[in-house]
Specification:
Elements: H1 18-37, H2 40-65, E1 69-72, H3 81-93, E2 97-102, E3 109-114, E4 117-122, H4 150-159, E5 167-170, H5 173-181, E6 187-191, E7 201-204, H6 207-218, E8 224-228, E9 233-240, E10 243-251, E11 254-256, H7 263-270, H8 288-296, E12 310-312, E13 324-327, H9 334-347, E14 351-358, E15 371-377, H10 383-386, H11 396-406
Antiparallel strand pairs: 1-2, 2-3, 3-4, 5-8, 6-7, 6-8, 9-10, 9-14, 10-13, 11-12, 14-15
Length: 408
């Protein structure tokens, strides 16, 4: 499998328009400090947001009356998985929910009704931005505006004692190169704002490789994150209302040797899994990138791995290239739960997705060399927890609705 024709392979599995992403990153980085300095965020939330919401509702009303907008009352093939699980949960609970499609286009705009009040939202309904008074978090600045900014996240987490990979932020080639030479190899480069691994380059060990990663990241942002690459296992932690709802291990596409079959035969066997032929999981990729990853491990498609030997086919854990997932919430060490709850208090937002690397999630993070946060997400893909390839399903959508309706 390979990227769709006409799309950017570095954006897969979620192609985006480069110039728009770059302009958005510049505006967000420049405007945020002004908003924080002059308390504009609180002003916008208290004054501008209600006006904007009212205006949006009036526009939607006008569009529907003139039949220029379509109202969808149940999920269909255009509904993203992230929102589908929320919508299906709303139906089970009797919560009226609709999608608004201006000019028939799906733009991820929805509305739900509770206690006679209709509320608009994008992608996911969000609980109020501050915790209830019994949690005593209300005096802390909300992190909704900065948790997706990787460079700002690094500064704030360092001050809070939250582990992150060593590294820094550079704008020019010379700045990036200086950071690279101050870190142990390998390193990773990525845009300072963004998600889903867009234009991220891993396993960088030389200046030539660094230059490639620098140029890729520059397409989406003027500022480049350069940091030590954790070689542990990636986990997605879902925090709702300050509590750990789910923890998912995300594995790169791989096969496990049996001492008998070739890599190609093992891949063919795994690709017969019916779950890998759906909107949730894709078959293991057998393209040039997979061949290159095999060669990096001194394998070919005709190699016969030893019994229980793990052979990777991708550097990314994305489901679009055959990555797999398994729920591990029940084995997470209590010290790691405490760390995740500390992250929730630091960010002070009731909906957070945390990407966390650690060698062994069942052991305390502070007893391991490889452990730290990679990034946080304000619109986490909660469908990951509803549709794991292995392990129990976690009702992330139900937990989200509990938090939303409690504060409505």
């Amino acid at each position: 499998m390979s990227a769709r024709k006409g799309t950017c392979i570095d954006c897969e599995p979620a192609p985006t328009i480069h110039i728009m992403e770059k302009c958005g990153a510049i505006m967000k980085t420049c405007i945020e400090p002004l908003m924080q300095s002059f308390a504009l965020e609180q002003y916008l939330e208290a004054v501008i947001d209600p006006i904007a919401t009212y205006t949006a509702k009036m526009c939607i009303y006008a569009l529907t009356k003139t039949r220029l907008a379509t109202i969808i009352d149940e999920p269909d093939k255009h509904t993203p998985l992230r929102t589908r699980c929320v919508w299906e949960c709303a139906i089970r609970r009797g919560i009226p929910m609709y999608e608004i499609r201006p000019l028939g286009r799906a733009i991820d705009l929805y509305e739900y009704e509770h206690k006679g009040t209709k509320r608009l939202f994008k992608s996911l309904p969000r609980p109020k931005s501050t915790y209830s008074s019994d949690r005593c978090y209300t005096s802390i600045e909300s992190g909704l505006e900065w948790m997706d900014n990787k460079s700002e996240l690094r500064k704030r987490f360092a001050a809070a004692g939250i582990p992150m990979a060593k590294g820094g932020v550079g704008r020019t080639w010379e700045e990036v190169k200086k950071i690279f030479h101050s870190l142990p190899s390998p390193v990773i480069t990525k845009p300072h704002i963004g998600s889903r691994g867009r234009h991220t380059t891993t396993r960088i060990a030389t200046e030539n490789e660094l230059r490639v990663g620098f140029e890729k990241a520059k397409k989406l942002s003027p500022w480049i994150i350069v940091e030590q690459e954790f070689l542990g296992t990636l986990y997605r932690v879902l925090l709702i209302d300050g509590s750990v709802v789910a923890v998912l291990r995300r594995d790169r596409a791989h096969v496990v040797g049996d001492g008998l079959r070739t890599v190609r035969a093992l891949v063919d066997k795994e690709n017969q899994n019916p779950r890998r032929d759906s909107s949730e999981f894709c078959k293991l990729a057998t393209d040039d990138a997979a061949t290159h990853e095999l060669a990096r491990q001194n394998f070919t498609w005709e190699s016969v791995p030893k019994m229980n030997e793990v052979v990777y086919l991708s550097r990314k854990p994305s489901r679009s290239v055959g990555g797999s997932t398994i729920d591990v919430r029940d084995v997470v060490h209590p010290e790691n739960i405490k760390l995740f709850e500390h992250i929730a208090r630091t960010v002070n937002d009731p909906l957070i997705g945390v990407d966390f690397f650690i060698s062994d999630i069942a052991k305390p993070w502070n007893m391991q060399e490889c452990a730290g946060v990679i990034e946080c997400n304000s619109l986490p893909f909660i469908d990951l927890h509803h549709y794991p390839l292995y392990g129990p399903i976690r009702d992330a959508a139900g937990a989200l609705w509990d938090a939303v309706l409690k504060k409505t």
